[in-house]
Design goal:
7 helices, Protein kinase-like fold, 196 residues, alpha+beta
Length: 196
C-alpha cells in the first residue's frame, strides 16, 4: 500500500512540475504520503499513517477502471485527475496507469496503480491490466489534457480498431466461398466447419 501510493506520489510531483507553470492550469492534484509504522508492543505490529483529510471525500475515478466518476467528471479536480491519468499513461507509453483517484479537493489518497502484465521498470501495480484497457477506451480529453499537449487516445484506439478490421477484410467472404463450394454443400451444416 505504501509502495503503490508513494510511487504514484512521485509521478504526481513530476506532473505538477509540468502543469503548474502553464498559464491558466492552476492547482494540481497532490497524492499525500503514507508511512509504515512499526509498533512492536502492539498486537498488530505494523500500521500505516497519513495526513487526515477533512471535508467531502470524493471518488474521482473508480477501482473498476471506468475513468472518472460521471457525477464528478465535470469538476475541476475530476478533470485534473483524469488529465493526470492520461499524462502518466502517455509518459509510460501505456504501460502504467494511476487509478482509484479519491480524496478531498486536490488532496488524494488510497490510489491504485495498474501495469501491463510484465510490470513497468520492475514495478508491478495492485490493479488489473483491464484498468489500462478500459481507460484507453473510455478516456475523454478535456482542456487540461490539451494544455499539456497530450495526444488523443481516441485517435490511437480508433487506428488500432481500424487496423484489426482491415485485416479481417483480407479474409475470404462468404460469396467467394460459395463460388468454390458445390451446390449440394451449400446447406449451413455442411458449409460451416469447426476445423477452420
Amino acid at each position: 500500500e505504501c509502495y503503490v501510493q508513494n510511487t504514484a506520489r512521485e509521478y504526481a510531483k513530476i506532473y505538477a512540475a509540468e502543469a503548474e507553470p502553464l498559464e491558466g492550469f492552476g492547482e494540481v492534484p497532490e497524492i499525500i504520503p503514507i508511512f509504515l509504522v512499526h509498533r512492536p508492543a502492539n498486537n498488530i505490529p505494523y500500521a500505516t499513517v497519513e495526513e487526515e483529510l477533512v471535508g467531502e471525500f470524493v471518488k474521482y475515478s473508480v477501482r473498476d477502471g471506468k475513468e472518472v466518476n460521471f457525477l464528478r467528471r465535470d469538476s475541476e479536480a475530476g478533470q485534473k485527475c483524469c488529465t493526470f491519468q492520461h499524462w502518466v499513461y502517455e509518459k509510460t507509453n501505456g504501460s502504467l496507469l494511476v487509478t482509484d483517484l479519491q480524496g478531498v479537493g486536490m488532496k488524494l489518497t488510497d490510489v491504485g496503480i495498474a501495469t501491463l502484465a510484465k510490470g513497468y521498470k520492475g514495478f508491478k501495480g495492485n490493479c488489473s491490466i483491464s484498468f489500462i484497457e478500459q481507460f484507453r477506451a473510455l478516456h475523454q480529453c478535456n482542456k487540461y489534457c490539451e494544455m499539456l499537449g497530450l495526444k488523443s487516445l481516441r485517435t490511437t484506439h480508433q487506428k488500432q480498431r481500424k487496423a484489426t478490421s482491415m485485416k479481417s477484410k483480407n479474409l475470404p467472404n462468404s460469396s467467394t466461398i460459395k463460388k468454390t463450394v458445390p451446390k449440394k454443400a451449400r446447406e449451413p451444416r455442411d458449409f460451416i466447419s469447426s476445423e477452420h
